[in-house]
Design brief:
The complex is a heterodimer.
Chain A: H1 2-7, H2 23-47, H3 49-60, E1 61-66, E2 73-74, E3 83-92, H4 104-118, H5 122-134, E4 142-145, H6 150-159, E5 166-175, H7 183-186, E6 188-191, H8 194-200, E7 210-214, H9 215-219, H10 221-225, E8 229-235, E9 241-248, E10 255-258, H11 262-275, E11 288-294, E12 300-306, H12 321-329, H13 350-360, E13 368-371, E14 375-379, E15 385-389, E16 395-398, H14 399-405, H15 408-415, E17 417-418, E18 428-429, H16 435-448, H17 471-477, H18 485-488, H19 492-499, H20 509-520, E19 524-526, E20 531-535, E21 541-544, E22 549-551, H21 556-571, E23 586-595, E24 601-611, E25 618-624, H22 629-647
Helix pairs in contact in A: 4-5, 11-22, 13-16, 14-21, 15-19, 16-19
Chain B: H1 2-6, H2 21-41, H3 56-76, H4 79-84, H5 86-103, E1 105-107, E2 110-116, E3 119-121, H6 123-141, H7 149-167, H8 172-188, H9 193-214, H10 217-227, H11 237-250, H12 261-264, H13 276-309, H14 313-337, H15 355-373
Antiparallel strand pairs in B: 1-2, 2-3
Classes of the chains: A alpha+beta, B mainly alpha.
Chain lengths: 650, 381
Amino acid sequence: MSALGKRGPSPGGPSRTRPHSNLAILRFAVLALFAILTVQLARMQILQGDKYAQRSRENHVTQRFTLPPRGLIYDRNGEPLVANETIFHAIIVPEFLPPLPEKAAERYAIYLRLEALLDVPAFAIEAKVKEFEKAKRGYLQVPIKRYLTKEEALRLDELTAEMPGVSLLERPGRSYPAGQEFSQILGFIGDQTAEEYAVLRARGYELDESVGKAGIESFYETELRGTRGVIAAEQDAQGHLVRSIESRDPIPGTSLQLSIDAGLQRFVSDLLLTAMPDAKPENSATTAAAVVMNAKTGEIYAIVSIPSYDNNLFIRPELYPAELESLFADPRKPLLNQALTPSAPGSTFKLVTASAGLQEGTVKPTDGLCVNSTVMEVKGQNNVIYDFVDWKAHGCIDFRSAIAWSSNIFFYRVSCGILPDTVGYAPVRGLGKDSDEGAVILSYYSRLFGFGQATGIDFGGEGSVGTIPSPEWKRDVYSGPEYTENDRLWVYGDTCFMGIGQGNVSASPLQITRMTAAIANGGFLVTPHAAKAVLDADGKIIQSFQPKLTRLPLDDANLAVVREGMLRSVAEGAGALAAISGLAIAGKTGTAEFNLPSGAKAQHAWFTGFAPFDDPEVVVTVYFDLGIGGDKAAPVAGRILEYFMANVQP
Amino acid sequence: MMASHGHRRAGTFAGWDRFDYVMLGSALALVCYGILLIRSGASQEFDGPLTSFASPVMKQIVFACAGVIAMVVVSRFDYHYLTHFAWLLYAVSLLSLVALLAFGHSAYGSTRWFNVGPIQIQPSEFAKLATILLLARFFSEHGGDAKDLRTLLISLAIVGPPAFLVFIQPDLGTTMVFLATWLGIVLIAGVSRRHLLVMAAAGLALLPFVWTFAVADYQIERISVLVDPEEDPLDAGYNVIQSRIAVGSGGWFGKGLGNGEQTQLSYLKIPTKDFIFSVLGEELGFTGAMALFGLFILLLMRGIRVAQIAGDAAGQLVAVGIVVLILMQTFINVAVNVSLFPVTGIPLPFVSQGGSSLMSVFISIGVLQSIIMRHRAYRQT
């Protein structure tokens, strides 16, 4: 208190100097600091204000999507081929679990209950949750068990209220009850890959939406998907919806009616499976395919590929790792649709050669040839003799019988002609004035019939479009330095072998079916399709798919000759085993030679045909990877046509 | 009372005619501004009637009234009583800061206040004032300048203990306020530039050590999220992002009081306290912020005026300390809100909700008034 006393009389204190000048620094500091703040504020509020305003909107307006039920898929008679079913996952949001460390015991009790309920070890759940929490991602959904059974889901649903943090996630899923016969057609749906999402995002897809991955499910994704429902709401920082801004119910996807006849599809599948084995092991087929198609519209009634697979596996892939692995490892490639996979078409291709020859006028329906030996000896350069073989000494045959009996030598004559100096045959020109021109003409007609191109089938799976060789093609393929100029050269034999569907020609059963349909219907190339109509929720047709036809520059009179040859084939020729009493079937067999990987020769068995002969309704093509066409494929085709006439409503 | 009765000139000093009404007016304007913002920012947590004493608005009004009374009472005292008892006030502050570590209430990972019944007392608020008073007294007793290195070091020893005690609470922001206040006082007290440079160099040399051993992880995290808040958007970066969005989305004129989504939908944490400026930025925009800055600049300039015309070195240095104190708290608080500074938990003087802060700034204004009311009495020629 002495200080007080001291201050009384002389309150000025002990100060000596009062350096006022320094106060300017303080004034400056005040203004400078506020200037800094002002500059930053102007930057944020004025220069970047729009950006932050946008952020603010995104911050508090949340959109929650409700996924629409996916459209269903029916066969032509209304049999459902797919079903919608919910997929259940058990998840934990660690943030909402009882907090650690105070309630560690409660937390573990939840893990133990889950263990009892779902058969997932409690320590595993704990480890997963810890992993997310450690990464500071405790607000995310931690999957505990995916694809719960209905019972598990039901029990979990009852108990989630007692287990904070645990919830049941429901996602729309699919099942395919119709059978494996339909897998190749229907395809399946599944989670989007990163690449798919990059594309689908622009079309308004959410990452967690399933999409069609293959088959009809993929091709008709737009029709089947429907429209998402939206609930837009203002959301507070805790994620509570404060106020609804917009709400729209999901619109279910439209359904599809296929032209497929489920009964026929199953019948054909069973038939192929029964016919595949053979007494001779070298003729026992490992893969097979068949196509049954409307001859005039391209509507597919049945399209079978063997082996098939269970597309239900792909809906819950995590549950079937072993099955999927063996599926991918299967050398027969069950995921590949054999009906869309090209191989050597053999004699079925003679129908193209026949049509080309007649249309070009280089062969007349009345022309005949005497095939007295199975070998035609052709003198090549340097007087080397090449043997061009036939499967049979046909004797003297006319054009139609050549088709019926599938004479190779006759079709050498049509395609490449017969060279001078060929023993036992008079020289005659083929399709062109020389081998090159003949090949070019033949490849032109092949393309008319749709070979070497995608068929445009509406469930995809068309990989290779097959090969139609030509001189140019050969030069390209053998352009590598490992080949000699001789390898690149198109020779007489190339045109001959091409004319009988050998050499480098390859075609898929569906392409062959298209060709046969064009011959049957008088020259219209159809685009095959399996979807018939789009249906609304009540099953009413809202859109029918119209057949797509292309008129080919072929005279029906010429095609009629080919048809007659085909009729004769089943009536009395190589395709006789396809005959069915009471039904006029026209057809063509094919036995295509090819080299096995072992180097041994083997044969594909083909048959393609149509019925009834007078007014062709349906085309059928049957293919086995191993076997003789007339023996193996023809009878199957006959049975299929018999079933079709009795049971399928066109 | 002693001042008015026991003092010869106390009865005669004109008192209220020298009272700085402009300074009081700007302070009250800031408080009113704050009340408007508190009303908007608190609408989510409190939805009772505004007149209820549980309402944050009402609480703030009550504290503001108490603050004004405290200011008047303090202004009636000769500030030399305060500097005279500065050691005692300083000692009590230090003790309470130590006690805080033992008994204090923790929130947001930091221990900063006592709960006394319904009132929270934040000792660091008063420690700042006590330290300013002690520094002023110290320099005024030692010739009013800091030219002497020894004097300078002792002054650093005075500011050191409270700065350290708030640092370990931990409260990085208040520590910086302490150091800035000290710097302001020694600058005005005439520190030699050479000394200052040497000390700055020493401080810089110590910085890595401080960073490694003394700065808590949370501080490093807050600094790093300031650089890239999206790195950890839901944790440490949350407040930074949300305040940035709030302020940025305000634009020129804001969304209107009570219309800021960031504020009203609870994206902003502690919107009536540390982040009240974000509420202002969002709802009143750039213009609203400029108005606030204007009021602060007016208030601080009036404070500097006090330092300018103070009667003696003690008064001048106290005034300088208080001006720097208010300036730095304001600057750091706003800087946090505009993402220029890591989150520290410093309230905006006069504006943020909170009794301790309000009381202490009004007492500070009271001290300034006391100085200006007596400047003639102590004027030396």
